[in-house]
C-alpha cells in the first residue's frame, strides 16, 4: 500500500469494523460520513484476521463485501519491528498489551493515520492519534 496523507485516511480497528458489520452503535452511518468527507477507510490485515476469527456462521459473504470497501494495509517488516518495540517499551512500564493490538497501532503510526477504536485503553501509545467515536 502506498501511504496516503494522514489527513485523508483513517485506520479502523477491529471493534469498529465489527460494529459496522453488525450495524451497532451507528457505525455504518458514521463511516459513510467519513467517506463523504473524503476520508479513505483503511484497516490492518491483522484486523481482517480478527474479524474472520469472530464471525458468526452466515456472516462470511457480508463480511467479504464490507472488507472489499476498505484499503487493506499489510504488515511490513518495519511495522512488525515497530510493534515489537512498542510492546517491549510498554512491558517495561508494567503495561501488558497483545501483539495484535501493537501491530494495529504500529500500522497507524507508520502511515500517520488516526486510529478509530472502541478500545482506547488498549491504544494509549505515545504519538498515536485516536479518532473520537460518536
Structural class: alpha/beta
Estimate nothing, just give the exact number of structural domains.
Answer: 1
Mean pLDDT: 93
The geometry reads as globular
Euclidean distance between termini CA atoms: 28 Å
CATH topology (level 3) name: Rossmann fold
- What Rg do the Cα atoms give? 14 Å
CATH architecture: 3-Layer(aba) Sandwich
* Portion in helices: 40-55%
Largest sheet: 4 strands, parallel
The CATH top-level class label: Alpha Beta
Strand content: 5-15%
Low-confidence spans: pLDDT under 50, at least 5 residues?
none
Number of strands: 4
In short:
With 134 residues, the chain is of the alpha/beta class. The protein is 48% helix and 10% strand. α5 packs across α6 (99-111).
Written description of the protein model:
Helix content is 48%, strand content 10%. By secondary structure, it is an alpha/beta fold. Strands 3-2-1-4 form a four-stranded parallel β-sheet. Helix 5 crosses helix 6. The model has no long low-confidence stretch (mean pLDDT 93).
Main attributes of the structure:
single chain, 134 residues, 6 helices, 4 strands, 48% helix, globular
Helix and strand topology:
Blueprint: E1 9-12, H1 14-21, H2 27-36, E2 40-44, H3 45-53, H4 60-67, E3 71-73, H5 77-92, H6 99-111, E4 115-116
Parallel strand pairs: 1-2, 1-4, 2-3
